[in-house]
Amino acid sequence: MLNFEDKQMTKVLVVDDTPSQKHLISTYISDGGYHVIDADNAREALKKASLQKPDVIVTDVVMPGMSGFELCRILKKDPETKNIKIVICTSKDQKIDRLWAMKLGADVYLIKPFTRDEIIKAIADDH
User: Fold this and answer.
1) Which of 14, 53, 64, 5 minimizes the C-alpha distance to 33?
2) What angle do CA 40, 42, 46 make, to 5 degrees?
3) Number of domains in the chain
4) Looking at residue 106, which CATH number applies to its domain?
5) How wide is the angle at C-alpha 123 spanned by C-alphas 54 and 126, nearest 5°?
6) Which of 2, 60, 62, 107 could be 127's S-S partner, Cβ–Cβ 3.0 to 4.6 Å?
7) Each residue's pLDDT tens digit, 24-63
8) Are the beta carbons of 42 and 70 closer than 8 angstroms?
């Protein structure tokens, strides 16, 4: 588990194309003491991941242009971003979706709706 000082330095990139969902997740994480960066889609997230080097990325799956699964695959194949912890946060509750996410390198798979405690635990726990 991270202590308070570590949290302040931990950058979390939140990726969701639904403004209300992105705001909710960002608020939970920010209230948990983490530094939040956000992106409206996976392509923007790729740019921000490369430039801002977040410690954790929390991403939706279903987004226009590029899915969260594709984002995860690209990040995990890039030597510069392969060690970023990825939390998939989705309403896709099928076993195959969870297996696919893990195969692509996701560290945590959370089903919406989730609690504040669940998202903070997903970020804080070592993977």
Assistant:
1) 5
2) 110
3) 1
4) 3.40.50.2300
5) 100
6) 107
7) 999 999 999 999 999 999 999 999 999 999 999 999 999 9
8) yes
pTM confidence score: 0.92
**Percent of the chain scored above 90 by pLDDT?**
89
Print burial letters for 65-90: b (CB count within 10 Å at least 16), e (below 16). Answer: ebbbbbbbbbbbeeeebeebbbbbbb
Segment 4-16, tens digit of pLDDT: 455 568 999 999 9
Question: Which structure tokens are listed for 33?
Answer: 């003491």
**Three-state SS letters, the chain:** CCCHHHHHHCEEEEECCCHHHHHHHHHHHHHCCCEEEEECCHHHHHHHHHHHCCCEEEECCCCCCCCHHHHHHHHHHCCCCCCCEEEEEECCCCHHHHHHHHHCCCCEEEECCCCHHHHHHHHHCCC
Give the pair of three-digit tokens for residue 94: 């099928």
